[in-house]
């Protein structure tokens, strides 16, 4: 049916274009457009403002025979809220007419259209506006003043439809409730201005509100119109950008069947989302709410858009929606409006058919007078209206002025138009510039396109302190109240309470203000409800997204060692810096444990004690030898080299102590050089002893004078030269690339090993190689002299000691390489101690045993007798 009506209207539009206002109008032309004005309430004036209001909510179906023209559109569902808007526009116009400072000597009239939320009726009303100059005026002459602009439409979808028609005639549209972001497209809608913020602000701000409250898993829905679909699209894009997820997204059908509504509510019931965000009108959301209550799905938190969150129809009829929050248009207390609304006279002049219908419906009576009808079907009541009934005795949406939000936007729209016309009027009155006066349009012969430049420049502060202006897209500033539905007193409807605000023109961090302590949630508590797909991951855990599911559905996985998360819901764990490590809870980085072989730990104490025992044992042997230095056994074993050997062994044991403790700039060079020098001295003494033994027996051969080269001075010189060579290597090492302390971070991830770097590996190898050469050479010589006769022969003891020495240091190499951290140092100390004890025991233990326990063998006679045998 609507398709046929729209087609008919388009044909009429084509005819209208052919009969443009410039042509002279005959009486026939004036009568041609009479059918466009059905259901219009008007008052004459010098300038006429058109207003569009959905005083009825839907049409009454007609049977079309296609044999005759369709009858006039009839509507049903009287909308008290929209009727209040229409009366408020009348009040604002009359207020402007009484104001001597605004449009002086100019009287504004109005034509108010009821379009019943129908596209066809909206187009019909627009045709009526643009054809105004072809209609009869109040005197019957065909010279009605043109309508320069339209205040409306409240519907985004209808605004888009009629704007395409009005664009042809450059008629500006100043909407007070059409908030679709799509209307900001100036290429498609160049003449639309709005005193309500664009949904681009609201949708984005609602997403930020959802994130602010910690809801990451939500259900989103919108009405099946431009407003719902566009706002939902912007909201979902912002939600995705903020890292939030939607359990479902759905469109509410415009005229749903019961099966569709049940299916829709089943989606909500089956969803795990506890929060529902809806961009829809009160007419669209109402059947969904009713079905949810019927199915007892009442444990959801609603978040509403401005189109329904301040609706008295919803808030007063469904107490189960207590706790609902949402964005609302800024409100104002308009003085005098309530009294004006209550003083409505249903039969006053000019006659308003909608006022009569409202009166009869409100007081359940009929006037029984033959007067023009409104767009609604006339209902007959048994009681007769007197016209003296009192509106102030009723409590309805019509006279409820506690939440004047859309009405306040209508106030801004009417006054914005008035200020634009006033600027145009002032342009005419400027003196001293005749050229400019010629450019100013005649306000009494005003064409729609002439108002547009003045509308773009509107900028004033109204009586409520708010700035009214249009940006480059014809939009108002994005300012909203955030409201919450509280349970009223016993028997009272829900109360709409302001709990915050949003202002897009402020700095980002100041735009959203929320008074959370004033919020009452759907369960009556003050605790913010939880709506998440997965619980928050605590510090120490990271989110691991589940395959095939939204980002908000995840598992909490502990951070790996060496990484942390110090806030909730981190997607990735953060690696600790090189010198830090994660604590057991994985929620902070702590200093890594510093590890080195210390005197204070048990293993270090054991090694230190062993080294001290070695020093004491060596000192004891020296004391024994010193006390028995004149005995044959001590003298026969070269006492001078023996004391020098005992001194070097003492240094070897003391050298082990330098490997304990924290490595430092002085400790690292000391331990390496001390090790090299003490062992070089020890092996030099052993080598001299072995050579003395060999030379001693060689000297017994007739004519052999070799022994004179191995007397004590030569022995001391040999020890000195062998030690000096090692000393030269150590000096070169310390002057070129000495050992230095380093922090080993690569061996263990959770601790730092303090160790000594060799500095020059080549020189370190030279030190070890030299010691190895001395040991091998000494071993070979001792092995060759092991079977020489006599008790003077120490060769076999030196052989055993060198055998132990070489075995220890050969075994040391793989143990050193495979030992981690501080145990590397322990292995080195163990090798030093083991080899030192091997030399001490193998060479001096047998002698000490004889000296102490078998003194009878420590005589010259006994030694000589053993030599003879």
From TrEMBL:
<dbReference type="GO" id="GO:0004930">
    <property type="term" value="F:G protein-coupled receptor activity"/>
</dbReference>
<keyword id="KW-0675">Receptor</keyword>
<feature type="transmembrane region" description="Helical">
    <location>
        <begin position="673"/>
        <end position="697"/>
    </location>
</feature>
<keyword id="KW-0807">Transducer</keyword>
<feature type="transmembrane region" description="Helical">
    <location>
        <begin position="760"/>
        <end position="785"/>
    </location>
</feature>
<keyword id="KW-0732">Signal</keyword>
<feature type="transmembrane region" description="Helical">
    <location>
        <begin position="797"/>
        <end position="817"/>
    </location>
</feature>
<dbReference type="InterPro" id="IPR000068">
    <property type="entry name" value="GPCR_3_Ca_sens_rcpt-rel"/>
</dbReference>
<dbReference type="Pfam" id="PF00003">
    <property type="entry name" value="7tm_3"/>
</dbReference>
<feature type="transmembrane region" description="Helical">
    <location>
        <begin position="829"/>
        <end position="854"/>
    </location>
</feature>
<dbReference type="Pfam" id="PF07562">
    <property type="entry name" value="NCD3G"/>
</dbReference>
<feature type="signal peptide">
    <location>
        <begin position="1"/>
        <end position="25"/>
    </location>
</feature>
<feature type="transmembrane region" description="Helical">
    <location>
        <begin position="641"/>
        <end position="661"/>
    </location>
</feature>
<keyword id="KW-0297">G-protein coupled receptor</keyword>
<dbReference type="InterPro" id="IPR017979">
    <property type="entry name" value="GPCR_3_CS"/>
</dbReference>
<feature type="domain" description="G-protein coupled receptors family 3 profile">
    <location>
        <begin position="603"/>
        <end position="867"/>
    </location>
</feature>
<dbReference type="InterPro" id="IPR028082">
    <property type="entry name" value="Peripla_BP_I"/>
</dbReference>
<feature type="transmembrane region" description="Helical">
    <location>
        <begin position="603"/>
        <end position="626"/>
    </location>
</feature>
<keyword id="KW-1133">Transmembrane helix</keyword>
<dbReference type="InterPro" id="IPR004073">
    <property type="entry name" value="GPCR_3_vmron_rcpt_2"/>
</dbReference>
<dbReference type="InterPro" id="IPR000337">
    <property type="entry name" value="GPCR_3"/>
</dbReference>
<dbReference type="InterPro" id="IPR011500">
    <property type="entry name" value="GPCR_3_9-Cys_dom"/>
</dbReference>
<dbReference type="GO" id="GO:0005886">
    <property type="term" value="C:plasma membrane"/>
</dbReference>
<feature type="transmembrane region" description="Helical">
    <location>
        <begin position="718"/>
        <end position="740"/>
    </location>
</feature>
<dbReference type="Pfam" id="PF01094">
    <property type="entry name" value="ANF_receptor"/>
</dbReference>
<protein>
    <submittedName>
        <fullName>Olfactory receptor C family, w1</fullName>
    </submittedName>
</protein>
<dbReference type="InterPro" id="IPR017978">
    <property type="entry name" value="GPCR_3_C"/>
</dbReference>
<keyword id="KW-0325">Glycoprotein</keyword>
<keyword id="KW-0812">Transmembrane</keyword>
<comment type="similarity">
    <text>Belongs to the G-protein coupled receptor 3 family.</text>
</comment>
<dbReference type="InterPro" id="IPR001828">
    <property type="entry name" value="ANF_lig-bd_rcpt"/>
</dbReference>
<keyword id="KW-1003">Cell membrane</keyword>
<dbReference type="InterPro" id="IPR038550">
    <property type="entry name" value="GPCR_3_9-Cys_sf"/>
</dbReference>
<keyword id="KW-0472">Membrane</keyword>
